[in-house]
Hints:
This is DUF1836 domain-containing protein. This protein has about 180 residues and is an all-alpha fold.
Amino acid sequence: xxxxxxxxxxxxxxxxxxxxxxxxxxxxxxxxDQVLTLFSRQGEEPLLTKTMINNYRKENIIRPLDxxxxxxxxxxxxxxxxxLKGILSIGEIAQVMEECYVSPGYDNALTRVYREFLxxxxxxxxxxxxxxxxxxxxxxLSDSTDLLAALLGLSRVEQYADKxxxxxxxxxxxxxxxxxx
Length: 181
């Protein structure tokens, strides 16, 4: 099945997020305003704000700074947090990140994870498209009750993803694993 034009356009907007690649990240340390500029998008809501970054620092979700500058590793940490916060609470993200930070060589591991995430993005995007194909057939866009059925189906998919993410955090990053919050 092929997406209808209206859904195809929405799909393109959702999946064309212009992710920052590791190659785009500067090798020199940045001040807060420079980090905010790096994360800003033209005409859109900012991905990060000064308040968000300060809260992440207070909660120790990002590693402590050496002075007032953020390293490339701090920026990778912020990118990971940005992607996780769409489905996990800040407390859950803190559990996950804290466990990662105690691992030897965590900076390289987090960079590898982000690189793999970007490499998998086309596969994830295709899975989303398949889901849209399944729940948004052309007929669903012309009748409000069919559209409601499609919305319920998409809602269920989101609920499954949310529950799976939370179960993974609880199972692999919970207090019984040595992480206390």
